[in-house]
Amino acid sequence: MDEATRPLAKAAGFNSVVAVLRDGMLDGKTFASIIEKLPAATAEAVKSPPLSVQWIPCERYGDLVSTTLRHGFGGDEAQLVEMGRRAFLHDLKTLYRVFIKFLAPGFVIDRGTKLWLTYNRNNGMLTARRLGERSAEVSYEKIAAVYPGFWSYQRGCLLAAVQATGYPSATVTLSRPGDAQGNAAFTVDWSAPPAARP
Length: 198
Prior knowledge:
The chain has eight helices and seven strands. By secondary structure, the protein is α+β, with helices and mostly antiparallel strands. β6 (171-176) and β7 (184-189) form a beta hairpin. α2 packs across α4 (58-72), α5 crosses α8 (150-163) and α7 crosses α8 (150-163).
């Protein structure tokens, strides 16, 4: 693939996935076996993490997520949703995690879709539109780097974004399944009451 058009992502998210797998979602033996099954370049990125701001090929994510789905979670995509949720929360620095609690979910969703292009290159775009007072649709358009488990992982990230605003009962459903062109949509709903503020 031409390097100028290759889908790339910032390494921060990749490093967060590694951290949540290593530090709780997989036991040490399973985590080690996952690394052994990865292509050499991805295994090296796990062993020697790139800088968070470094651009890495999206296939590193694909290798890690797909291999974990198959060999670590036995094909259970619900665990992949949880992995995405935990990785997103891990990626939020402590200061941001405190700050985001005071933001409205709709604002966080809208801002998050705009940030997609800050953390991804040559990998489509996201848009958001309000569906109601406490719901929104997030559309993924022309995502080039779709791999097995991608949509479940994204569902977990969206869920974490809304839960971080203080809505632990929020739901995220795939309302338009991914197609061959990398298009899909999720409905995000936070109509259940928010958690009490401390």
